[in-house]
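Please, structure for the following, as C-alpha cells.
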Amino acid sequence: MFSLSRTAHAIRLLSLHNRLSHFTGFLLGSAVALLMLVLGALSSAPAQAALIDTGACNEATLSQPFLRWGDTSLYELVPGGDFEGSLAGWTFDGGAQRVAGSEPYGVIGAVGAYSLALPQGASAQSPFTCVDAAYPTFRFFARNEGLLGTVVVQVVYKTALGTVSLPLGAVVLSREWEPTLPMLTGSLVTGVLSGGTAEVALRFTALTGSSHIDDVFVDPRMH
C-alpha cells in the first residue's frame, strides 16, 4: 500500500512538471512575440512622439494594502476584486464561484465575507478596466485547498482585431492566505502599441488543485 501511494504521488508530480513545462514554453514564446511587437512599434514611431501615457486612467481611491509585507506602493482595487458586492463584468467558467470566507488581513478596511473559489480547471476573468503606462503591476491574495495548488494568471487586452491574452506566470499557492508577488500588467507595452491607454482584464485559471483568490489590486503609479 505504501509503495502504491508513493507511486501515485510520483505520477502526480510528473504530471505537474509536464504541465508547468508546457506552460513555461508557451510563456517564453509569447514573451518573444510581444518583444518583437514592442521593438517594431518603437522603430516605426517618430523620435519626438509621446509613445506612452504615464497619467492614471481614473481617480480611483488608492491604499497601501500590502504595507505589512514591506510593499509601500499605492494600489487601487480591481472592479469587484474584493468579491463582496456586485460582480458585474466578471465571467466564470468550470465551476468558479463566489463562496463564503475571505483573506483574514482586512486590507480593504475590514475582513470581508467572501472570496472566489477556483476548482481545478476553473477560470474567472475580471471586468475590463483602463490601463496605461502608469499601471505596471498587480497583486492579489490566494490560498489552495490541498497539495500542488497552482493558478495561471493572464492579462487580456482589447485590440482592434479582438481580444488578445498574454500569460504572465503560474502562482504556486500555500494552504494559508498570502499575498502574491507583484506581477506585471504589460501596460507599458499597450501604451507603446496604442499610443496611450488600453482596456485590459485579468484571467485566473486553476491549473492544479482547488484554489481561492481575494482582493485583487492594481498599482497605478510608475516607480
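The two ends are 55 Å apart (CA to CA). The first strand starts at residue 76 and ends at 77.
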